[in-house]
Structure formats: C-alpha cells, structure tokens
Amino acid sequence: MFDLKKAIKDWRKSLEKNEALEDGYKEELECHLRDKIEYLKNLGRSEKKAFEEAVRAIGEAEAIGAEYYKTNTRHLNGQAPWRKSRWLPPLISNYLKIGLRKIKRQKTYSLINMAGLAVGLACCAVIILYVTGELSYDQYHKDADRIYRVSTHMINTVGEFRFTTSPGPLGPELKASYPQVELAVRLVPPFENADHVLVTQGEKRFFEKRVWFADNEIFQLFSIPFIRGNPQTALIHPNTVVITEEMAEKYFGEEAPMGKMLRIEIDYDTGNTELQDYEVQGVLKNAPANTHLKYDMFLSMETMRNNQPLFEENWTDFHAKYTYVKLAAGTNAAEFEKRIEREAQIFLKHRKMELYEFFLQSVTQIHMHSHYQREIDPPGNWTYVTIYSIIALLILLIGCMNFINLSAALSTTRTREVGLRKVIGALRRQLVAQFLGESFLITFLALILAAGLIFFLLIPFNRMAGTALTLSGLTQPLVLLSLLGLLLFVAIGAGSYPAFILTNFSPISVIQGKWASVSRGARVQKILVIGQFAISVFLVICTLIVFKQLHFMKGRALGIDLEQKIVLRVKSNLNHFRRDYEAVKNDFLQHPSITGATVSSSVPGEKTTGGYYLTSKAEDFNNAARLKILTVDYDFIPEYDIKMAAGRAFQKSFGNDENSAYVINLAGVKELGLASPEEALGKRFMAHYHRLTKTIVGVTENFHYRGMQEIVEPLILDIENSLFNTITLSIRIENMNQLMSFIKDKWDKHFPGVPFEYTFLDESFAREYRYEEQTGKLLGIITTLGFFIACLGLFGLASFIAQFRKKEIGIRKVLGASTSQIVGMLSKRFVLLTMFSVIVASPLAWYAMNRWLQDFAYRINIKPLIFLLAAGGALAIALATVGLQGFRAAISNPAHSLRNE
Amino acid sequence: MVSKNLMAASTKPIILTILAREEMYGYQIIHNVTQISGGTLEWSEGMLYPVLHRMEKEKLIQSQWRMVENGRRRKYYGLTENGRKELEQEKHQWMKVHKVLSKLWALTPS
Predict the structure, then answer these.
(1) How would CATH label the architecture of B4-107?
(2) Which chain A positions have a beta carbon within 8 Å of B27's beta carbon?
(3) Where are the domains of chain A?
(4) ipTM, two decimals
(5) pLDDT tens digits along A370-417
(6) B75 CB near a chain A CB, below 8 Å?
(7) What percent of chain A has a predicted confidence (pLDDT) above 90?
(8) A368 CB-near residues (< 8 Å, 6+ apart)
(9) Chain B residues with beta carbon closer than 8 angstroms to that of A25
(10) Count of CB contacts below 8 A, A vs B?
(11) Which helix (H) or strand (E) holds B12?
(12) For chain B: N or C, fewer Cβ within 10 A?
C-alpha cells in the first residue's frame, strides 16, 4: 500500500543532500509538492500516481540547488564547489596554496630543486635550439626538395675522391640537354682561395670571404630576397654586382648604394690579378645563418665570360666551380642522376687514368650529410650534436634525481598532511594529482629560471659551437613544442616517485608516528644517489681523459719550431710576391729583431689539400704515388728547425736546387715504396704539376704539420715559387711596437693598398686543438655542476637519514659513543654507495672515451690511475658532504632528541 | 511549446504581471500561468523558486511566510515599488518588439 506521508518524508530527505538548498527553500518546495498532489488527486489520480507526477513536475533537486547557488554566490563562473568541475581537480586552489607555502617554508631545498632542474632545462633548451637550427639548413628555399647540387666523384689510381665542385660548362649543358632541368646555376669564387677577395671603395679596403660569380638565375633557384633592384635583371650585364645590406652599409654607409661602383680584385687564372669596377645593381637581405651557401656579394657571370671565355668549354677543371640545378616537378632524382652520371666522360675521352662521375646532393641534406672536398661551409657535425645532447640530458637527469631525492627526504614533513587528507576522505589518485601538480609548479618555476640561464649559456655556447643562436629562436613552434614536452616529461618523471611514496602512507601508522614506508623509500633514494654519483664520476673521468689527451698533444714534440714566429699571408698582388720574394724577405730582414724570413705555400696548422703525383717513369702517371705538397724556399727547413733523417736540406751552395732537388719526409719514403731514407736519396721523380724531374736530396724526420689528431702524411718539399703565398718571420720579442710598425711599413711598401694582417704562429697552431679545448672546458663546467647538484642530493639524503636515526644517535651518545664513532657510523654506507657508483661509471666512461680517442692519430692510453683518481675525488667530496651532516647530528644534545616521545 | 530562450526571457514579466494583481505563493503562480496559457507555457516547476529568490534579491518582489489552514506555512510573494517600475519597463519593451513583429508579419503574410 502506498504511504504518501512516508513518500513525502523520503523525498524531503533526498533534498538534504543538496547543500545549496537551505531549510526555507526546502519547505517551500515541499509545500509546492503537497499543493500539486492535492490538485492532481482532485483530478482523480491515485495517491501514488499523483505523488510521482508531482515529483517529476518539480524536477531535479540538483539543478534547482545549482540555480539557487548561482544567485547566491559571488564566484564568477557560478560553479558550486561540490559539483564536479569539467577539467580542474577539486581543491585546486588549496593545493596551489599549500604548494607555494611549502616552497616558501623550505627555501633552501626548493632553491636546490629548482636550480638543479633549471640548469638541466636550460642546457636542454640550448641543445634543442642548436639541433633544430642544424636541421633547418636550406629548408627555407622555395621548392627546396627539387634543388640539388651536382657534385663530382673521381676515381683514379690513388683512390676515390668526392668533390662538391664540377666543371664550368656542366650547368648550361644539363639545361640544354635535359628537359628535367628547370634551372641550372653556376657559382664560381673570384679567386683561387675564395676566403679573401679584396674589395675597395674609395678609402675603404677590406678582404671579403663570401663573394661569388653567379648566373642571374640564382635568384630564381634559391630564395634570396631583394631589398632594392630587380632580381630578373640584376646580374645579366657584365661588371655588375649585387650586395647584401651589411655590405652596403660597410662600403657606402648612409649613401644609397644603387648604381655606385665597387672595385674588386679578381684572378682569372691568367697569372695576373686584376682590379675591376662593378656597378651595384641590387641590395639583398643578409644571408641567413641556416644556409650552406653563405654570400655577401654576387658578381655577374657575364663578367667571367668576357674575361675568360675558355671557362665555358673547359671540362677538365673540376675545382672551384659549383653547379646547382632545380629539377622539374615530378622528376625522379635517382633516375636523373643515373642519366647524367657519365656526362663528363663524353668530353674527357683523353683522360683515361681518371674516371669522373656526377652525383646529386639534395640542398637540404648538404649541411648535415655532405663531408666532401671543397665544401662551401663547414658541414654540421653529428658527433657534436650527439655529445652535446647526451651531456644536456645527463645534467637534466641529475637535476631530476635531485628533485626526487629531496622531495622524498622532505616527505617526512608531509606525512601528517597526507594522513589528515586521507582520514578526511582524499582518494589516492587525488593525492597523486596534488603532488604531481606540485612538481609541475616547481618545474614551471624552474623553467622560468632556466629562461634566464639560457641567455647566459648562449654566449659561450655560440662561441664554442660556432653558431649564432639567439633567444628569439625559442619562439619557433617546434622549439616551443619540444620545451613543453620537456616540461611535461620532467614534471611527470621527477614528480611521480615522490607522489607515489607520499601517498602510500597508511594514515594509521602516520598518526602513530611509524615511518615504515618512509624507510622503504630510502632504498630508492640510495639507488638514485648511486645514479647521480655514477653520472658525476663518469663526467669526471671523461674530463680527466680529455685534458690528459690535450696535455699529451700539446706536450708532444712536433719536430718543428713554432715559437716567436709571425706569419703574413699574402692575399693580393701575388705575382709580385712570387717573382720578387727574395727582395721582400731581404727588406724585412733589415730589422735587427727579425732573425729570419722564409716563404712557403702554407704554414703549420693549415690544411694542405694540394699534392704532387710522382712517377719515376716519364709521363706515366697511372701508377703515380701522391704526396702532399709544401713548396718552400731555401730558408724554410733551417728556420723551422726541421731535423733531417738522411741527406741534406735545400742549400744555395749547390747552385740549382730549385730546378733539381726534392726533400721528402719519412712517411713519403714509405709512400714511394722505398725501404729506407738512405735508399731514397738520389732517386729521381717527375711531378705532374710542373712536369720536371728532380732528385731527392734529403729526407726529414716526420715533423707534425697538423695537430696530433692527424697522422703525419707523406709530404714532399719543393722549391716552386708559383704556389708561394705566405711569409714567416722569426723574431726576437723585444720592443714589439716598434717592430710591428716596421713590419707594417715594409708590407705597405710591397703590397700597397692591401690590408695588413698577421698572426703569431704558435697561437694559430693552437687552434688545431680548439675543439678538444672546448669539449674539455664544457665537460669541466658540466662536471662541476653535476657534482654540485649530486652533492646537494647526497646532503639531502644524509640529513634525512640523520633525522631518521635521531633517537638511535641520542641513545648511542648516552651510552658513551664518541662523536667520531657516530660520524663514522653515519658515513660508512655512503662510502659504499660512492664506491658502487664508481664501479658502475668506470666501464661506461672507459668505453665512451676509448671511442673518442680513436679520432686521434696520436693518443694516450687510458690508465687505471685516472679511475682511481676519480674514485678518490668522488669519495672525498661525498665524505665531506656526509661528514658535515653526520657531525651536526653527532654533536646535537641527546636530551633534545630523546625528550619528546 | 516555446523555445528555452524565449521562456527564460518571458519568465520575469509574467511573474511580475501575475504578482501585480495580488500576492501569491509559488504553486499558485504556476497554476495561474498554466491556466492562462492553456497549457502552452509549461514551466519546470522547481525552477520557479530560484527565479523568485533571485528577483527578491534584486528587490523586485518581497516575500512573507504566512500561516494558513491546517497549520501549514506558505511563502507569499508580492511586488515592491521597484517591481512595479520594472513591470512598466518590461511591458514597454515587449510591446515594442510585438509592434515590429506584427508589422513585419502583416506586410508579408506567410
């Protein structure tokens, strides 16, 4: 039987659940219900029907309550606090408040946490910037996927070589013969050595590095934006030039550059350099950093054609001419490559000893994947990308471990909070959300801190890696996305463990004061400390080995004297220099502080690419040996103090050494297939370069012309003035100002109008080791940081354990333990941890450094002493950190720790 | 049926008009509305009360608990001076809209 009274009572009760419905509201609703039931009953419904219909008519109590709340609240969104939010967890504001309060209360720990994370994040951000920069090379060209460089693969008796260059006629030939080629463009440097082109405008004279002869179509092939001038016509006439904004300002300042003249020194391979006038026909935006084709000026190819008509037909010169093509849409590059592979052979029938093949290089791949001869721009280096990335991740890892460790240690201070929350009814996942949220908060703050650090990191990093990264790069979507990913990864990665142990407390044991689950956390902490120390020890070993190798390389006798030498590079007016070098030398030798002068084709520490093919039978170069060539004068060997292994150096007293004598090094003896230096003496060889047959009169020791990374290559010394371009002056360091002004006077006399530049040989040679020095410095900084952060972690753990064993220590003291005994007791386990991390790190470090050392022709052996040294250092630092903490625990008054129970 | 938006907009003038005649309690208001509209305006009954509550907060109406027969209490609502003014304004506005619509529909009978 339906009981209306009870039904109404139950309904009224169901309203109670709703917090927004105050008593008055409920009474009003009940009154309404009763009236409605009355009305429906009068219409003839049964009591049950009437009740049900009335309840339905009134509607959901939940919705009514929410409406009431909306009219009462001042909350903007009108969201009732007990109603589930769409996406924010409940109590979020409370979590935030507690989180911030904790950070404020434990300033030191929070700062350690954030600093550790910030350093890691900043390093990672810089690396992300670096990597995205490296991978973005030449992607910005329109239709970049259809632009290719045609490069050359040469095979001859000596070996295989890949050049980035190709013959001058190739571009037009391809364009004319193949419909697949939409555009073909040639680039030619205006000088045999493109890194110094003399450009003058009035009184302004500078050497420029990035000057090219180019076909006018270059502006259609590559995306090179114009500020002034017409890209269609800028370079169609002879003696026209297009310059970048930077150049315009450098040479013309405030004046409008269009139509003005620049005088540029060009070498048309005719034996004479010429100063020619060029009219400015366009101004370009400065070349971006992420292109392999760096440019400051483009000269019209018409000029080249006018001055050197043969260049259009010369299929034999594969050097210093670059060909770029844009293929028609839909062309299969691989198939096209097959078809043009042998293009050169048609024109080179007479050259049987060498096979030339062309191959295509996608312009977007050139920076990272092309490491051939005559690259325009130093290619990107995957090794460094990898090394830097690993180092950055290691720092981040140490930072994360630190965060985990300290949070775990601090968890003791939060047990009561967690216990209370649990008792009140917090679910496990709500607590996990709370602590993950806190780790997000800290990571986010660390990220802000990191943003500041990035600014300071970029400067040394740019110097080290030779990049031009800027803060503005951080706003690229890809970079931002990666950073966001990193933030998520770190916050969740570092936050989940503390969240796990913190929420794992049983509320009963917390309130009873038992810390059972906390001590289980200590085990994980130990593993983390081992991890941190292992990384640190790993870094220490690496740093020690890098510095040892560096020390070894610098200390090893080069067999050549670099001290107190000034090098003058002749970049202009070379004909005068090569003809009258004796006169030039003698002019410099008039000064009493200049003790010697010698000229050569290069100086130690410079890359030598040229070589002689040598043959003992006339004109048979098919079985020739190739030796690197260093052309010198009579004074070179004595001035550089190079020791002879057999025979004699070049000597004027023999009368005609320049036409009849070679000197080779010991490696050269082997390369020529001779058994001993003595046997080499008197042997006669013809060189392909000048087709002269000369006699080997002497053999030098293997002196190091390059850094110790490189093995001493077979080398031939020849007195051949056509390749001279460098003067070396041996000086006495005294009265330098007067000496330098004397040298400058003499320079201006022989090379008027050429900017005076000089280097000290020992300094320029030291640049051979710059990458190793940079790696060493970087590792040194990272190691220090890593150790510092790891020590903080250790400090945290030690203080945690001392806290944990406070009562035990108190009792031991009461029973008569001495301070040193207690310190020893507390430190013992850390010694074990440290030793363990050394055991973990040593083989890894050995493996990594062994691989690194493979790059060096002359290298150290990794000795166990290094590992012992690293172990000792790690142990000392660990003991100092822990001992301090232990000492503090040991001298504390036992009365304090034992009093309250 | 009437759309939800129109319903929400018309609630206030309807309540004001009804209460202008005499003081009433919630159920009476609903009952009146249902009868006058002939069932075309059907309110979710419970929702009336938060609306009344809000109007009271806006000082358009005032309420009073009164004892009635068989010892039950009822909450009666009546217009305030503000409420009367508001009603005049509402009337004015609704008539304006009404005029425009009637003109439009008179011109182009659909």
Answers:
(1) Orthogonal Bundle (1.10)
(2) 31-32, 35-36
(3) 4-72, 92-135+379-512, 145-363, 515-557+769-901, 565-768
(4) 0.86
(5) 888 888 887 877 777 788 788 888 888 888 888 887 777 777 677 778
(6) yes
(7) 24
(8) A134, A135, A137, A379, A380, A382
(9) 49, 53
(10) 56
(11) helix B4-21
(12) C
